[in-house]
Amino acid sequence: MIEIDAITKSYDQTVVVDHVTLTIEPSSVCAVVGTSGSGKTTLLRMINRLVEPTSGAIRIDGEDTRNTHAYELRRKIGYAIQGHGLFPHRSVGQNIATVPKLLGWDKDKTRARVTELLELFQLDPAQFRDRLPRELSGGQQQRVGVARALAAKPNILLMDEPFGALDPVIRSKAQEDLLTIQRQFETTIVLVTHDMEEAIHLGDKIAVMDEGKLLQFASPQQIISKPATPFVAELIGTGERPFKLLSLARVGKFVEPGSAEGDPIDISATLRDAYAELLWSGRAALPVSEKGQVIGKITLDQLSSHARPQ
Amino acid sequence: MVWPNNPAGAGCRAGPYRRHIVFVSEILSEKTGGRMSDTQTAAKSGFILPRFDKLGVLIAVIALGGVLLPFMIFRANRIVLGEPRMIFEALATPEALVLALLLAAGMVIALLRFRAGLKLAASLIILIALFVLVGRSAYFLTPPDDNFARISPGAGFWLLVFAFALLAADALTRLRLKPWPRIGILALVALAFGILLATGSLNGVSTLKEYATRADRFWSEAQTHVLLAFGSVLIATIVGVPVGIISFRLPKLRAALLNVLNIVQTIPSIALFGLLIAPLAWIAATVPGASLIGISGIGVAPALVALFAYSLLPVVSNTIVGLQSVPEAANDAAKGMGMTGAQRMGWIELPLAFPVILTGIRIVLVQNIGLTTIAALIGGGGFGVFIFQGISQTAMDLVLLGAVPTVVLAFAAAVVLDAFVEMTSTGKPQ
């Protein structure tokens, strides 16, 4: 659990982060959204003390972060940034082993962990361990960057626009991978992004920031259906609201008995995908399949009722 | 772009056809090292040239000039005015014929677009032949039992050496050799000249006659020269790199320090040597023990101090530039993962800045090998001793005895350090 308590950062007269208070539950993903200059990155960097707060406190599992040395604190917290920040002169394996080496892990343990992580991120260890970062594609570099952040099995992972430099196809794959890994290891993730779509997709909770202030801290459903200020509404985009709401739920929860004409949709698809398919094919209902078997249908009427605040 | 024999056929769609052309031209540009292919050049200039090499034309013109100028200079004694000797006067006819044929072949090879390997081989053979034949010519031109005659290479010889050294350098650039092979070629060339000198085949040449009468002095001055040039760079590195690191971390100090070092760099070298005489003499006279460790107003000490002062700016500024060039994201990630300041410096910043720092060291080393010749003016010794003696006696042979080894030393240092810079900048040494 991360408790951020009235944290403030100001440089001379400029207040960058203004009395932000929020609590991030263990094993959840908190997405911090805002335009550039909103103070979201500064907020993130105060958690691992890359920026020292002017006032206020941050507690991790009840322990004030100022009670440990900054560098010791950072070794316990994963950190991944936009453009991956890999060390260009060190191999993929050495990059991933950075924090274990700092913590003084023995060689075998470190090597085993690097192998495990490379496999987890679908990078063949035999092929990738000794390559230099510049010999990898952008998507591979980004995966190594996240693998490096997770190397010492941190409970908390801080990510600053980690997918910002990726093209859309690789980006959505990377987002899925991150969610899978987050569920597997129950890591608490704080992720900074300027992209509301990404925040809604990844966040259990979303913190919206503007001009240093926290405007709203709530679940994606609440943010979409009850935006606290006009600015939050603007970030979501009023025309986009129904579709964003639909994108939060999966088909599986809304299957009705019966069947329908045409190609089926998989049970794991989002309501938004189902809605798009209905409109595109001009049907009123879609068959729903699970592992190739049709198990029911989903109707346009039902979707329409879920595309607005409940 | 003119593209004969459209390989994709006439009726194909524009898309794949265009892709095909891009693909082929990429391969071409890879093979020719980014140069335009012949067809491209011809198409651009609007008429078809024979396969001439542009630099080759220049080389052939220089070589032709070399052939037309005197190959050797004959002087009845050390200081009289020389008489020119053309190739066929300077060598026995068979040897002159061989040289003429070699030069003709070399010019043709330089002119046309042959493979770089062939050009390199041709230029090296001709260079070796030139030096061997200069040695032969010296014996050929020296009257029997005459110890006063001085035979030295003429302007023609030097132009020919320049032309074919240019050809060799161009071929080496095109071959894009890896660092170790480059050092290997340097070692082979050094070995070839070593053999030429050791076998005495050049002993008839005037400069080596000067050497013969002062061999001991030559080697002791060589030692001083190397000591001054390398020693000053070593001290500048030991001092300059930490100073660079500190001033990188303290921007206020950086600005002031770089200004001071910039001013030092602008002082003419002779003036700097001169300026140091008074303070060092004062130190030698007043600080106890200073004169015992060799500090004095003239001699090695002021030379070393001046050379050190000149070296400091490039080392310090390259250290700063190198540290500044470390990717910010890498540095931020290092900090965010919990590296301490010292760990970042040792693991990330210095290794990434190292090639740039090494480039700075290469610059000052080559610069100081040359500058050290001036140390002779204040009694510091080195190859400059022969240069200034030669100038005062109007004996060019003696000047060359100091100048040639200096140039060779600087050139060798540049090649070796360039190779090191390349090895370190690939991230990992091969």
TrEMBL record, chain A:
InterPro entries: AAA+_ATPase (IPR003593), ABC_transporter-like_ATP-bd (IPR003439), ABC_transporter-like_CS (IPR017871), P-loop_NTPase (IPR027417). The keyword DNA-binding does not apply. The keyword Ribosomal protein does not apply. It comes from the Bacteria. Belongs to the ABC transporter superfamily. It comes from Devosia algicola. SUPFAM superfamilies: P-loop containing nucleoside triphosphate hydrolases. Residues 2-236 form the ABC transporter domain. This is ABC transporter ATP-binding protein.
